[in-house]
Specification:
3 domains, 11 strands
C-alpha cells in the first residue's frame, strides 16, 4: 500500500512538473510575442513619425518656393522697363550717349533708345510713321516741318506731329570751317574760300541740302557770293548725308576743308580755323519737342527736363554747345 501511494505521489509530482513546465513555456512565448509586438509598434510609430516629418518638410519647402517665386514675380514687375525712343541730330551723339548713362542709373525703370542721324532723315522717318517719343533737331526748319502751328510756307504738307506746348529751344551750336591736321591749303578763315575755289586745286566737303549743316553752309556760300551748283559741277565739292560724314572726310584728309559744327570738331579733334557769324548763316539753334504720337509722352517730358538741367548743360558745354540766350 505504501508502494502504491509512493507511486501515485511520484506520478503526481511528475504531472505537476509537466504542468508547470508547460505554463512556463506559455508565459515565455506570450512574453516574447508581447515584446515583438511592442518593438513592431515602436518601429511603426517611428516610421509614421519620420514620414510625417518628411511630409512637413516637403510642404514647408513648397511653401517657401512659392513665396520666392511670388517675390520674384513682384520684383520682375517692379523692374519692368519703359523704352523711351529719342530721335536726335547726329551732332549730339557723344553728349547724349553720356547723359543716357547718367539718366538710366538714376531711373532704372527707363531704357533710352537713340536714333542718331541728320535732322532731315529723322523728320522723314517720323513723317513715315516711325515710333518716336522725343525729337531733337539741329535746325528749326525740320522741326517746323512737323509742327502744324509753324508757317505754312515751311510746313507745306500740313504735318501735325509736334506737341507745340512741349517744344523748346535747348542748345546753340556754332558753324565752323575745319581742315585736316596738315591743313594742305593753308586756310585761315572763311574769307579765303573764294580764292581757294578759284585756284581749281581745292576740294571742299559740305552737308547735303536737306540737312541743317548743309543748309548753314549754303547760307555761308550766299554770303560770299559762291555758286554751289557751279562749284559742284567742276568737281570741287563733295557731300555728306549728315555732319558725321562730313567730319569723317575732313579727318581722313580726303578733302582740303569742310564746314561742320564746333561740337563735331571738338569730338573728332579737328582743327578749327574760323567760326561763322550770325550775319553769315544765322544762329544754330537746336529745338526739341515731345511728339503727339509719343507712346511715352510723360517719360519723354521728364527726360527733356533732365537734359536742360545745369548738370546736363555742363556736359553739352564741354564740347562747344551753349545755352540758348
Amino acid at each position: 500500500m505504501k508502494k502504491i501511494n509512493n507511486k501515485i505521489y511520484n506520478n503526481s509530482n511528475k504531472y505537476i512538473s509537466m504542468v508547470a513546465l508547460v505554463m512556463s513555456m506559455s508565459m515565455m512565448t506570450a512574453c516574447g510575442q508581447a515584446t515583438t509586438t511592442t518593438i513592431d509598434a515602436e518601429a511603426q510609430d517611428s516610421s509614421i513619425t519620420e514620414k510625417d516629418r518628411a511630409e512637413n518638410v516637403a510642404v514647408e519647402n513648397k511653401s517657401e518656393n512659392t513665396e520666392e517665386k511670388n517675390e520674384e514675380a513682384v520684383d520682375s514687375e517692379d523692374t519692368e522697363t519703359t523704352e523711351l525712343i529719342v530721335f536726335a541730330a547726329a551732332s549730339m551723339t557723344e553728349t547724349l550717349t553720356e547723359l543716357k548713362e547718367t539718366y538710366e542709373t538714376e531711373h532704372p525703370e527707363i531704357e533710352i533708345i537713340y536714333n542718331f542721324d541728320s535732322s532731315g532723315t529723322l523728320k522723314t522717318q517720323i513723317q513715315e510713321g516711325a515710333a518716336c517719343d522725343l525729337f531733337i533737331s539741329a535746325g528749326q526748319k525740320q522741326m517746323n516741318q512737323l509742327d502744324i502751328t509753324a508757317d505754312p510756307e515751311v510746313n507745306t504738307e500740313g504735318l501735325d506731329f509736334v506737341d507745340e506746348t512741349k517744344r523748346v529751344d535747348i542748345l546753340e551750336n556754332k558753324v565752323t570751317l575745319c581742315v585736316p591736321d596738315d591743313n594742305p591749303k593753308g586756310l585761315t578763315s572763311f574769307d579765303e574760300l573764294s580764292e581757294a575755289f578759284e585756284s581749281g586745286d581745292f576740294l571742299f566737303c559740305m552737308g547735303n541740302s536737306d540737312v541743317p549743316v548743309g543748309q548753314y553752309t549754303q547760307k555761308v556760300f550766299e554770303y560770299y557770293g559762291l555758286d554751289e551748283e557751279t562749284l559742284a559741277s567742276e568737281g570741287l565739292i563733295t557731300y555728306g548725308t549728315n555732319v558725321k560724314e562730313v567730319t569723317t572726310q575732313i579727318s581722313e584728309g580726303s578733302v582740303d576743308a569742310g564746314v561742320i559744327y564746333c561740337t563735331d570738331a571738338y569730338s573728332a579733334g579737328l582743327k578749327i580755323v574760323d567760326y561763322a557769324t550770325a550775319d553769315m548763316c544765322g544762329q544754330v539753334i537746336y529745338p526739341a519737342a515731345v511728339l503727339k504720337t509719343a507712346e511715352n509722352a510723360e517719360q519723354a517730358q521728364e527726360f527733356l527736363d533732365f537734359i536742360q538741367t545745369d548738370e546736363s548743360m555742363a556736359v553739352f558745354e564741354e564740347v562747344g554747345f551753349s545755352r540758348v540766350n
